Amino acid sequence: MPIGDRQRAVLNLDAMHKARDEIRTWPGYAPTPLVSLKGLAKEAKVASITYKDEAHRFSLNSFKALGGAYAVLQLLKSHLPEEVSSSDLMAGRYKDIVSGLTVCCATDGNHGRSVAWGAQQFGARCVIYLHATVSQGREDAITRFGAEVRRVDGNYDDSVRQAARDAEANGWFVVSDTSYPGYMKVPRDVMQGYTIMIDEAVQQLPEPPTHCFVQGGVGGLAAAALSQLWEAYGPDRPRVVVVEPDRAACLYASVRAGSPTAVEGELDTLMAGLACGEVSLLAWEVLDEGVDDFMTVSDDSAVEAMRLLANGAAGDAPLVAGESAVAGLVGLLIARQQPELSAALGLDEASRVLVIGSEGATDEAVYRELVGRGSAEVENEALEHA
Fold first, then answer.
1. Could you tell me which of 274, 70, 29, 73 has the C-alpha nearest to residue 155?
2. Out of 53, 64, 77, 288, which one is annotated catalytic?
3. CA dist 186 to 14, 71, 102, 384, Å?
4. What percent of the chain has pLDDT over 90?
5. Catalytic residue among 53, 77, 108, 288
6. Phi then psi for 199, rounded to 5 degrees?
7. pLDDT value at position 109?
8. What is the Cα–Cα distance from 362 to 322, expressed in whole angstroms?
9. Radius of gyration, alpha carbons of the chain
10. Is 64 one of the catalytic residues?
11. Which tens digit of pLDDT belongs to each residue from 85-143?
12. What's the number of CA atoms in the CB half-sphere (13 Å) around residue 237?
């Protein structure tokens, strides 16, 4: 079926073009690579696997750079007396106004890094909330952009609530990648930024994919991928499979319940960027009627996939992929090992699969511990392979 009004009320082509035109002007912008994993596709017995590699998006090593920073820009522009460009703010032309504004958010790491980077680029103050299990490396990456970091007991959803309370008390502006009742505009801008990555992939693909395996989290990335693929290919869009950690599967729980459903507990998955217990309501508006399938995968399988890519899967060039980058790929590989599941997902030897490598080594110490060597070593091996 074609994309509907319900989905276009959240994400649409006009807004994507606006975001794309803005972000293309930012220093350092370039489309990230779409890598063909020919050897792995042969082993998985599919026609092709293409991997959208976000390991070097701007200086943030994650697709999140497209969302949080763009939402910061849109929020700041809404408080200025006239329409301005990002270059105006980067040049400090409205410093007297913007420097008096504070943006804040909760994060597992990557979104907060994007918000902090955006605030630094455009001249605003920034406060970032981290829950107890976010690594020191990810905190250091955020403070590098001049943000103040505050630690919160509990899980990601607890830090979201604390950021909202403090923002209300202090007159700050929340730039969250998840939406909730009464808070919709900014998360829409965040997701709209993500659609640029999928637009790039559509332009890079030699032919339309039959499937897209994409990570879950609060649902923002999955909604952006689904929406843009739907716009690009219409009723012939690829089958979209959303993959989550089995320890933080709020989307899987929601689809089983038929409505947004929270997952309680510590959400202690190694896939830090996907450690989310509550669905973004805006993302649900897109995902509810559009996603074809939902899966969960284990932390152990994610680590195995990280190592597989780092070692050069089936003769492919080595790739650096962070913990949250590989969930979609894991879902595909597991499905191809289970004939009944593979058939249920419509996978066969003619399938052309797009997967989203959503981050690189966003915490070097964690990456080295899991893979056995640092990201620079893996990238040097990739150069030697070429």
1. 274
2. 64
3. 17, 6, 15, 43
4. 90
5. 108
6. -60, -40
7. 85
8. 7
9. 20
10. yes
11. 999 999 999 999 999 999 999 998 889 999 999 999 999 999 999 998 899 999 999 99
12. 22
